[in-house]
Amino acid sequence: MLSDVRTQPFQPGRGPLSPGSRAGLGAALALLAIVVAVELADGRPAHYLALMVVAPFLAAALASWRVVLAVGGLATAIGIGFAVAERGSPLVTVVNVTAVGVATAAIRQRQADRIAELSRLASVAQQAVLRPLGPQVGTLAVAARYISSTATAEIGGDLYEVMDTPYGVRMIIGDVRGKGLDAVRLASIVLGSYRHVAYERADLRAVVTDLDRAVARNVGDEDFVTAALVEERGGTLTIVNCGHPSPLLLRRGAVIPLEPPAPAPPLGFMPVVRPRVERLEPGDRLLLFTDGLGEARRDGEFFPTADRAWRLLGHGTVADGLASLETALVEWVHGRLDDDIALVLMEYVGARNTTATPVPSWEVGAAD
């Protein structure tokens, strides 16, 4: 809930100093100590006390306004101490600079708090769109991971969902063109529609048609959503692809790209899809991903997803596999991603006990 992440008002005297405040305070105290030491070594008249005015500004660059005020008070006290023995100590200047520093630090702190609050709200918005998955959905062990390209906000247009429906375990992975709140809004529309029609439509092609209408009603002429929809029913895997990177099937050490029989445009451009059907074996794993994975590169060389997929994803739990993939990917790009990435990894653990004959969704209603 939003109330769980709201910022709490600062309580004076409570809690440790932030790293920025500690750094600012340490730098300012070091400067004041140096000025005092030099003045005492140099003797009269005072030549370096004016440098104390730098201390509040130095603290203001990193610390809170309370720390700046404390530094200014200390600098003023030092100036008073020297003024007892000598006229002309720069007390007025120190006080004025302290006032300016306090105001500067207060403004900077408000801006930092605002950015932190927006980042937390963005994270909440992302979590509201992408619900936690797994660890087991129907006959599939499932894990999902969202890798943000920015450290400040985990927010974007990548989407995924896995549900156990009357027509088998169904899943979607998609990528909205663009980023930011508009992309999140469209992703939430697609997921909201999918969570409804996946339970209502027996044919995956009908699901695609409904999603295409939902996207077309809510985007401009150049906006779209790439998506791959997958259904597992009784060990039969059915995939329809709307302009999205093809899933990878991992089987007994081999990595098989599940390319569609014919290309289809993204949602929003009235795709006409042709299903691809595969028979699963216990232990098979399926990786769904967005194009941020395929486009991750360093020095012009793309991350070799297919070459490394079995070594990274073929062992341990599915959650372990995604963790290994993320680690290898981040190391490959030296921590700098150009696009967000959504990953879903599933393992087929075997068919459920059922008396019904498994029929892929694309055959349902074929006689109509």
Structure description:
There is one protein chain. By secondary structure, this protein is of the alpha+beta class. Helix content is 42%, strand content 20%. The protein contains 9 helices and 13 strands. It has helices at residues 19-42, 54-60, 65-85, 91-129, 180-200, 204-216, 291-294, 305-313, 318-332, and strands at 136-137, 140-147, 158-165, 168-176, 225-233, 236-242, 248-251, 254-257, 276-279, 285-289, 297-298, 301-302, 341-348. Strands 1-2-13-10-7-8 form a 6-stranded antiparallel beta sheet. It is elongated and about 90 Å long. Mean pLDDT is 80; it is low at 1-14 and 364-368.
Number of strands: 13
Intertermini distance: 46 Å
Structural class: alpha+beta
Uncertain segments: 1-14, 364-368
Strand order of the largest sheet: 1-2-13-10-7-8
- Strand proportion: 15-25%
Determine Rg (CA atoms, Å): 30 Å
- On the 0 to 100 scale, the average pLDDT is 80
Order of helices and strands: HHHHEEEEHHEEEEEEHEEHHE
How many H/I helices? 9
What is the approximate shape? elongated
Q: What's the story with the biggest beta sheet?
A: 6 strands, antiparallel
Helical content band: 40-55%
Question: What's the short version?
Answer:
With about 375 residues, this protein is α+β, with helices and mostly antiparallel strands. The protein contains 9 helices and 13 strands.
Q: Mind sketching the topology for me?
A:
Blueprint: H1 19-42, H2 54-60, H3 65-85, H4 91-129, E1 136-137, E2 140-147, E3 158-165, E4 168-176, H5 180-200, H6 204-216, E5 225-233, E6 236-242, E7 248-251, E8 254-257, E9 276-279, E10 285-289, H7 291-294, E11 297-298, E12 301-302, H8 305-313, H9 318-332, E13 341-348
Antiparallel strand pairs: 1-2, 2-13, 3-4, 4-5, 5-6, 6-9, 7-8, 7-10, 10-13, 11-12
